[in-house]
Amino acid sequence: MKRKPDYLKILKIAAGTGISIITADFLGLRYSASAGVITLLSVQDTKKETIRVVGRRLASFVLALVLSAVCFHLFGYGALAVTVFLLFFAAACIEFHMQEGISVNTVLMTHFLAEQSMGVADILNEVLLLLVGAGIGVVLNLYIPGKKKLIKASQIQIEDRMRDILGNMAEALLGQAPRCGRSTPLLLLENDLELGEKQAYEDMENTLLAETRYYLRYMNMRKSQALVLARIEKQMCMLEMLPLQAEQIAGLMRQISERFHEFNNAVELMEELESVKMSMREQPLPSARPEFENRAILFQILMELDQFLSIKMEFVQELGADEIRKFWKSESCRPEWRKP
Known about the structure:
By secondary structure, the chain is mainly α. The protein is 74% helix and 0% strand. It has helices spanning 7-26, 33-42, 47-75, 79-95, 100-115, 120-140, 148-173, 183-205, 214-237, 245-258, 267-282, 289-319, 321-326. Helix 5 (100-115) runs antiparallel to helix 6, helix 8 (183-205) packs antiparallel against helix 9 and helix 11 (267-282) packs antiparallel against helix 12.
């Protein structure tokens, strides 16, 4: 799917570049356009990434000052000094994962070359250019619209999709729908999960004061459950007949589908599953090989449903029900989904 242009980011880059150049001119700084370039390169997709980039750029600036002072002192203000400077500076930045600082700080250091001087006033000029450019970039990027509404919409769509898949599987076990050739809903679910995971990661990266990984954990939990559904689909294709036990598992699938929502801790559903499991074990052994093989497949499907519910139980136990509720208070949420 083609990604929409980030018009807000484009606006920040354009406006920020202009503001930085005007500010640098107002302060009487030389090479004021460099402040605008620094702002352009400082605006990232998320708040945390912007701060990380600026931090690495400031650290590499200190290194660049030291190396340029040594190189210009030893080799004079010429091409040889710049060559030696870049040789060591680029290597150090790559070694310490500060590649973002190579281009910007190299430009700043060439100002010393142009001035043929590296006095206090020259150094102060470059420090202020960096602070103005990076500072305005950070300030502009403090506003990035949250993605919580989009994530909650993704949650609703994902849960609707999984609910439908379970319901369709139940119909297939009752002989009311085909058991094979139903992979399209799972592919759509996979696309929804990828989008939801991306939105959850971006939301986490744009939260500075509260480290919230809930949505990312939620998407990972649903991805694990989707893998279980994919395995169940393959097993259903292996069924050549539907023993009587298929009706019990179909009933369990319908219960899971009907009670499938974010707040369900799956405890009661797990009890229902154990009841079905016990019932299947107590039933007479099959008398014919085909029935034996198909009942074995059904029991494997039941074990997959056990795994499906266990994934949700672990998720709830890890975070706690109260923690989950804290992240789902939207008035647009369907009332019946808020029930414990």
